[in-house]
Every structure is written in structure tokens, then in C-alpha cells.
Amino acid sequence: MSKPLIGICPNLKSGQPFGDAYFLYSLYTSLISQNGALPVILPLVGSREEARELLERVEGLVLTGGADIDPKHYGQAARHPERLAPRERTASDFAYVREAKDRGMAALGICLGAQTLNVAFGGSLLQHIPEDVPGALQHEDEPAGASPEHQIQIEPGTILARALGVTSATVNSYHHQGIGEVAPGFRAAARSPDGIIEAIERTDHPFFIGIHWHPERMAESQITRKLLRAFVAATRGAWAKAS
Description:
The protein is of the alpha/beta class. It has seven helices and 13 strands. Helix 2 crosses helix 3 and helix 3 (87-103) crosses helix 4 (112-120). One of its GO terms (molecular function) is gamma-glutamyl-gamma-aminobutyrate hydrolase activity.
């Protein structure tokens, strides 16, 4: 059996000496290749039509981490405008996830990718967890490299619970934002002890999951292996919707 081809959405670095540049940590491609699939880096697109043509050539979609989505997309003013992602990247990611959803394609959103899934379908975000949830756990690696970890509780009966086969896990944490209002068609699939949503999933789709931790930075974890194997199985159509 040939390995499925997984499209990965890269980051965008604006204002480089020779123009904008795509950026992707090789850990993302290793994550895919180590779990039974072949990675391919997708270009940014300017329309759903372009996203459709590209997704016709892959079996699954991964949305990676990065800077913040402009809060205008969920009806708020930006409190930390210095953290915003280039609008071209946000528009491209939205086009890919909306097209993937309509195609029934397996998708995995990582950190910003989880936030993209939520906002693209009508949800909102917590713009800065320390401000919005006083007393919350440390979720951001401040100072850089601190690599905080915490527990998550996985909601019974979810697709994520079926994929991981556990009710709790220890994960890393590198995000200063969180899921606010969950988008229509989605549900919370995991939370940290302070109540922050750590994973979301569509309820009408076999595998359309966003997680706030970074599995590519904990590649040897059994949680990572189980999640990625379920994702790859879903790209082959071998993953039935959890009851």
C-alpha cells in the first residue's frame, strides 16, 4: 500500500531581503514521515479554488503553529497587534480548512492550527490567557525555552479519546491564546486543569481535530504516536466516526 500524501501549511515571514519567505520547522515533516505518510509543503493560496486544486493532490492536511489570527475575524479589536500573523497566511489557512472540511478530508490543526479551525468556522479566541483567565496555568514558554508541561483531561466519547485511548495525558504548551467560544459544528475534546480548552473536533466529520500542544516537539510520546497513526489511518478512509 502506498503511503498517503499529507499537505502541510507553512508559516510566512514577511519583509525578507528577497521577498516574503515560507518557513517550516523540519520537525513537522519528520512527524509525518515517522508515522507512515509522506509530507509535502503546500504554498499559500489566494482563493478556495486554488486550495481545491491543491487538496485534490493530497490525502490529508496539517495546519502548523505561528503568530496570532487578527481578532477582526471574530469581531474583536486586537489587544496585542504586534503578535499578528501576516493576513496572507490567515486567508490561505482559512481557504484550506474550509475546503478540507467540505471534501471530508482528514485534518489536524496544531496550536495556531487549532485556533484556525475554530475561527474559520465561526468561533472566537481568548486573546491572551493571562489577561482573560486570571490564575490560569502557564501555557506560554516565557521565557522562551521554558517548555511548560501540564495535564489534560480528554472528554469521553470524543474522536480524540478514541484515537488516544486514555482519559488524561501530559502535554507541552507553547500558546498564549486559547479557544473562546467553540465554533458551531465543533466540541471541546480536551481541557487543562484550569479549564482552558486544549483540543476541539468537528462532530460531523471522521477526523477534523485541533490540538493546542505541539506533537512534533514530543515525537517519541505514545500520545503523539497514537494521534498521528489515527490521523494517517483517517487519510486512508480507515477511521470510522466515534460513537
